[in-house]
Prior knowledge:
26% strand, five-stranded antiparallel β-sheet, elongated, mainly beta, 1 helix
Amino acid sequence: MPVLSTVGAASLRAFGAFRPASGASFIVATGGTVYVDPSNADYKIHQFTSDGTFTISACPVAATIQLMMVAGGGGGLYSGGGAGGYIYRSSFSVSVGSYSALIGVGGGYGVSGGNTTFGGLTALGGGSSNNAGGSGGGGRDTVGGSGLQPTSSSGGFGNKGGDWTSFGNDGGGGGAGGAGSLPAGGAGRTAEIISSGGTYATFAAGGYGNVSSTSSALPAVVANSGNGGWGGGYSSIGFGSGQDGIIRIRYKYQ
Length: 254
């Protein structure tokens, strides 16, 4: 069932939001930035990089969408920040109604990222240094934080942050594609839903930590990637903030 926006159910019924789905051949929807799939013109994609509402006005019985969600990445602080949790559903059931799309913000220095939510699913924000999260933050003076996304009720992808070993040697944050190490952050995951520019970019990579008190400004700052921030406090590059999350929705419209 859809998660209703702030408009009450009775009001939605009055405006026809619960029209029967039968009779529609394809999904008809609005919300976010909409583009035709560059790889297949029979599909539309809705991208949310800030909070919004995905509204279905008509759809077939037993309609489904493809859904990709990434939470905000954790901020680095000597050790690297963990990437935002990553969720992908190849067939997510939907019906006529409104769905709130809430985008997790990236964490500042030493601050965990925010959650991304849609349709009852939650992608967990990346952990800051030492802390658990969608992917865990790298360890500073301790072991790296746990990656909580895979065992959460929503499932998905996330990994542990790398462990601290000694002064100036702090772990990298975990990523959606692998655990953090020393000093590298965990690998991200290649998007299953294409961008408007026709690319399948990597999302949710962990931030780099330190080795011998030296860090790298990695991963690169990419808006709405869910990447964790680097932890370069011992060097001139400074700490890195985590990046905001994203939601992409894909469905056949003709």
